[in-house]
Design brief:
Elements (H helix, E strand, L loop, with lengths): L7 H26 L5 H53 L18 H14 L3 E5 L3 H12 L6 E6 L2 H13 L6 E5 L2 E6 L2 E6 L11 E6 L14 H5 L3 E9 L5 H14 L2 E4 L7 E4 L4
Parallel strand pairs: 1-2, 1-6, 2-3, 6-7
Antiparallel strand pairs: 4-5, 7-9, 8-9
Length: 288
């Protein structure tokens, strides 16, 4: 069996076994070599041998486990990077030539952009609401602009005026104001299902009369409070169309994963995990 396949528990067992074997060997040698073959010498030899062999095997095991952890982490990062590059290659041909989008960090991942674009092209929504604004708002607006038939729009919410202004500037520079609006909605307390949760302080009257066809949830930041993104569905539920698609970013985090499963139960809809470096959840409402 390769050393890389040995678990931490197996190394502990090996250390105990090695300590016993080492103690027996050194104890026997001490008994054999001592002048009087005394029990004290034998016991002392056993203790020294057991301690030495046990320490060496514990040290080797610890180093091996740590190297395995580092290897798995590196392999994971390499895999994520490969997937991101593949998604970038898939997304780039669908963007306007002059449009340069930022991926990673606080911006959306390339994988999330690919998922959003795929669903936009598949569903062709008329009204998209986005929780959080940024390069994703630019991406959605640019795609809505290309669709024929009917007035299409993305409404993005941002809890900080600074970032909302940055998104508005991006939209203006790419002549996309006709297809997008950005509202500044500072976080405030909402009472939801006997829980006090923080979410955008939005006046729901700003939403158009028509229903939301796609909800993209990439905010508020998880640091704001636990289950920071969960209120999106309880607050907006009555505004969702029967065919609404809901896309949640950062789905590998515990709060987002719990939110997605709660939404699926509350809406009675299908929940799909779409993977990616950060994890993406997609909720499909009943199309019947």
């Amino acid at each position: 069996m390769p050393l890389s396949d040995i678990s931490k528990r197996d190394w502990r067992r090996a250390a105990v076994a090695g300590a016993l074997i080492g103690g027996v060997i050194t104890g026997t040698l001490s008994w054999t070599l001592s002048v009087r073959s005394s029990g004290v010498a034998t016991l002392l030899g056993f203790v020294i041998g057991a301690s030495l062999f046990g320490f060496l095997l514990t040290l080797v095991g610890s180093v091996n486990v740590k190297l395995n952890d580092i290897r798995e982490t590196v392999i994971g990062h390499v895999g994520d990077t490969r997937d991101e590059l593949r998604s970038m290659a898939n997304v780039r041909p669908l963007l306007d030539e002059e449009m340069l989008l930022q991926f990673g960090g606080y911006a959306m991942s390339a994988h999330f952009a690919e998922v959003v674009l795929r669903l936009l092209m598949q569903e062709r929504p008329k009204l998209v609401v986005e929780c959080g604004s940024g390069s994703s708002t630019l991406l959605v607006a640019s795609r809505l602009k290309k669709f024929e038939g009917g007035d299409r729009r993305v409404i993005a919410l941002d809890h900080e005026e600074k970032y909302a202004d940055i998104t508005r500037d991006l939209l203006s520079r790419h002549n996309l104001n006709e297809w997008a609006e950005v509202y500044t909605a500072p976080l405030e307390s909402w009472q939801i299902n006997d829980e006090s949760l923080s979410w955008y302080g939005i006046d729901l009257d700003v939403l158009p009369d028509r229903k939301i066809d796609m909800l993209v949830v990439d905010g508020p930041p998880a640091e704001s409070r636990p289950l920071a993104r969960y209120p999106a569905i309880p607050v907006l539920k009555r505004h969702l169309s029967k065919e609404c698609i809901i896309i949640l970013d950062d789905g590998d985090r515990s709060g987002e994963s719990e939110a997605a499963h709660r939404w699926a139960e509350e809406l009675g809809c299908e929940l799909e995990y779409a993977g990616g470096a950060r994890g993406t959840w997609i909720l499909h409402r009943d199309h019947s």
